[in-house]
Amino acid sequence: MAEGGRTADVMRTIRGRIAARGLAPGERLPSIRGLATSMGVSPSTVAEAYERLAAEGAVRSRPGSGFYAASSAPPPTLAEIGPCLDREVDPFWVSRQSLDGEPDTPKPGCGWLPASWMPLEPLRRAARGLARAEGAVLADYGTTRGPAGLRRLLARQFAEEGLPVGPDRILLTGSSTQAVDLVCRLLLRPGDAVLVDDPCYFNFQALLRAHRATVIGVPWTEAGPDPERFAQAASQRPRLYLTNSALHNPTGATLSPAIAHRILNAAAAHDVTIVEDDIFAPLEPEPSPRLAALDGLERVIRIGSFSKTLSASVRCGYVTARPDTIEALIDLQVATHFGGVSPVAAELVAGVLGNGQYRKHLDALRRRLARARRETAERLASLGIRPWLMPRGGFYLWCTLPDGRDAAGVARAALREGVVLAPGDVFSVSRTASDRMRFNVAQMGDGRVMPVLSRAVARPEA
Amino acid sequence: MAEGGRTADVMRTIRGRIAARGLAPGERLPSIRGLATSMGVSPSTVAEAYERLAAEGAVRSRPGSGFYAASSAPPPTLAEIGPCLDREVDPFWVSRQSLDGEPDTPKPGCGWLPASWMPLEPLRRAARGLARAEGAVLADYGTTRGPAGLRRLLARQFAEEGLPVGPDRILLTGSSTQAVDLVCRLLLRPGDAVLVDDPCYFNFQALLRAHRATVIGVPWTEAGPDPERFAQAASQRPRLYLTNSALHNPTGATLSPAIAHRILNAAAAHDVTIVEDDIFAPLEPEPSPRLAALDGLERVIRIGSFSKTLSASVRCGYVTARPDTIEALIDLQVATHFGGVSPVAAELVAGVLGNGQYRKHLDALRRRLARARRETAERLASLGIRPWLMPRGGFYLWCTLPDGRDAAGVARAALREGVVLAPGDVFSVSRTASDRMRFNVAQMGDGRVMPVLSRAVARPEA
Fold first, then answer.
1. Interface check A196 vs B, CB under 8 A
2. N or C: which end of chain A has fewer CB within 10 A?
3. Which residue in B234, B204, B260 sits closest to B91, CA to CA?
């Protein structure tokens, strides 16, 4: 959309005349030849400028008759939405503040890596490949399951992890969140009970609220959900248990094999379906037990995406489950989104995955994150902020604030100085994490973070 | 993912050894230097080949120790899903058959243009621009509303159509279907009544079924819904009325101003919200009355996308509505999809819209479709198939089969010969369109269509 020199001059001239009412709404623009002569440019430059003005709605073209000033002025451009300082600190708080904050706002509260930590060169190369792709990739709806090539790549990965499923049992979706949402739509009815970890990813609560589910929190330990409490909760016959088993959000803890086994047994005893959202798995130094692999996808539905390691912009998630579940999810995805994943997105993902550089990127990323976790823990210690545990991988540190400080108050004070934090209670169903805070170690590099955090911890808002 | 000559040779060699068990699962691959010497290639070629094999899962790398044959063989590649001949002809029938048919299957039943009719050159140019975009576009989540630049372009377009809304009242979504779905999630509870046109787009029925809504059909006339029947149905206080007012799917008819006015009054009298899905509007020769513009977006929610004219692969839809509705939809979109539209998709759309060629493409497309409508009508007449009306634009002809032929039977017979058709009853809530068929005039070019259709009409399946 860049405007070349002379074309831009012509566009500015016409826009100026319209703005100054030198050209009234509906009035015919100067002839292409006439304006070209008077401005000393070629007729094709004027024609191109008129086409672009028409594309943006400032002028209208009537075939065979010429170009006219638009009949209604464009509406005023409203200022973009700034941080909502008065918004309640609810499960949407962190999402809205981190997604809609100014681009240069430091966001140690957000759930993704800075763009500069992502594999930008492989992405650019994949975009150049996209420009040469066949027309169907650029312009058509894709198949309902998503392109077979990418599903085969995933199937190979799953086989490596001890989960031998064919590509036909993988459904590509617009994101892992969309995959969780489709599963909830398939299996939940309003009022159904769903187990989540306490604490858990705040958006699980927002999502389950959208489904009008009754959410039951199971206390989360350093090795997974508390197995006694899980069994107790499962006996109330919830429909689902929704969890991240590897590098759990927000704590970074990982499910132990022993607890995994007990969870699966309790789920089987009470016919609870488990949704395992494994989006942080590629950040593990060594693979940890997967509920999906232990169970053989009988009652576990496995979900993932590329948003944490490849791109959050290229929307592509996946779900693998029993064949009957996949078939039902396909119909549901067609009904609610038509088609499945965007073929353009799948092409970009496959392009990066098939590029040898991507694995090197992942190796380097894991090392970089290990360093960032250590450094962040040291810096936070200087403010008396201590991690609950040191995770084996990933980018989160789940920390305790000093002297029982109220994390929501600290987050509000920090937001006033333009730093987005993630206070503990947004992750906690029981709201028992008011002195906890989740830090994203990859987002701590900005020099403003520590001074603002230091002041906010010293003087949280009421 | 193309494999260069020598690298590909090395990859083939290693794959061959693994397949022939010359390299057992878990066995160490030859050293890079050793294989390079024996194959007469450079060590960097072998290293690249090993990285690519690791990326596709055929080998594993252990940092500091080398590369190993993968420990589990990849699962067999299942054949892709073919046409489901035995599937019930329900609202999902046409979607599944057209989305999952073989790429070269003629699909006069589908709801989109062939890729070759789409603006492929502007799309390729936009993809090259994407390769040069800033990192955030390639790798970050976007803002919750979607990029401001694209929303400003849309706001200008809306102003042209007499709908002056600021860009802050436009929410970008993953598709128009997703936009309708979000609105339904916001406004509907299971059992709520929803009015649709009879016939209407079959996926509206599938979508409303997913919401467990009670669907009420209002007979559709050549100038819009029958106003008496609409008023009658509205008096039952449905929550929503879901419609395409311009170039209605499947009939191609357009709402008249007089009926638009009566519909709005009846909706106001019974507090019915109207969802106007305007995805075919860019194909109109001249703009027709918009319910959204007449009403000023008080009780009308307007939805659209670029899937019919720019790309169905680049998933991007939009919704404009009252500010409180937009705010609620944003939270719902975050909860169920995290983030909004893919920044990559929005960049591609904005790139094409800002390209002067796109308007020329639209002009040419409208002319081409007018010709295709005429030609298709003539060809169908030779089989006694007649359009219910000749639409002023778009790519659909809604036709009556001769002698009360059963369209589902004709569609089944044609599918057996590899041609996907759209039988009338999938569009009809009351199932009173059994002798109707929707034809997509842009998909009639394949030489197989008319002979297959001729046979299927002569001998429909029972």
1. no
2. C
3. B204
